[in-house]
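User: Some background: our group keeps a shared notebook of sequences we're curious about, and every so often someone picks one and asks for a predicted structure to add to the entry. Today it's my turn. The entry only has the sequence so far, pasted here. Could you supply the structure so I can complete it?
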Amino acid sequence: MLNQIIFRLLGFVPTLLIASLILFFAVNVVPGSASRAALGIHATPQAIARFEHKNGLDKPLLVQYGNWLVNLVKGDFGKSFQNSVNVAIEIKKRLPITLQLAIYAFVIALCIAIPLGLLSAYFHQKLGDGLITSFATLCGSMPNFLLATILIYFFSIKFRIFPSGGYVSFSESPIENFRSLFLASLSLGIVSSGLLIRIMRTVSIEVLSENFIELVRSKGAGGSRIIIHHLFRNSMIPFLTVASVEFGFLIGSVVIIEEIFRIPGIGSLVLVGIINRDYPVLLSAAMIITVIVLLTNLVVDTLSTLIDPRQIHKSY
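Assistant: Of course. Here's the predicted structure to add to the notebook entry:
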């Protein structure tokens, strides 16, 4: 078990380096000029040359990557090409908002997935199982931006229950903070619940096949007691160790949602960087998201090994 944990820790840095390399070159090979995006289409060749020399864009890509990586390790994320804003300060301001949105969405996904997954497993190969599985398939296949649009129409435009966009900080008003993030969290959470329902169903079916469940049934325990006192408790550890990986993916799914709901998080910063060809903003924000996803996977894998060593040999 210790060797498995050490192996995962040692593999984290090379994985991060490979991810940074792919990210850097993917951003730079896309057609378009960061210089013209920053200076405007009427910029002179002399102005473009000065801009590229000042920002190191006239150097070979490998040299640019090396300089960027060294600065990144030192905590220097550079300055925006568009407005010279310090990117590190901007990320520090926006990151808590994205994490808060992802946490809300993950909690909503769990609230949907856990009871439905348990019920689906309990009524395995019956009508209830089929209905819940179909619902999970629908949730998992629906684009979150489409669901977001539907939620805005009904809850913001038609019934005016929640705001259609904007953000209110928690320190300013906890209630308004929750209201400003609810629809965005709901759209992310419902889509994520599709996968989590299937995971919970698979884990619970395996628990139901254990001998102790048959023993409980033979003693005359009812369905609700089996689900709450036995199935739920014994399914949660393997479920959470697998499902927690979804939290990392939620961080990477916020780009479009934050833009739709005008939430000033990391995702919307990535989109701004893409539109403006703002390399320091785009690369730094995307790299932060990548680090969070990889760290989440690493922590979940390590904790699952410590909690239940059998998880090394299991896959749901």
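Suggested note for the entry: Residues 87-122 form the longest helix (36 residues). The two ends are 20 Å apart (CA to CA).
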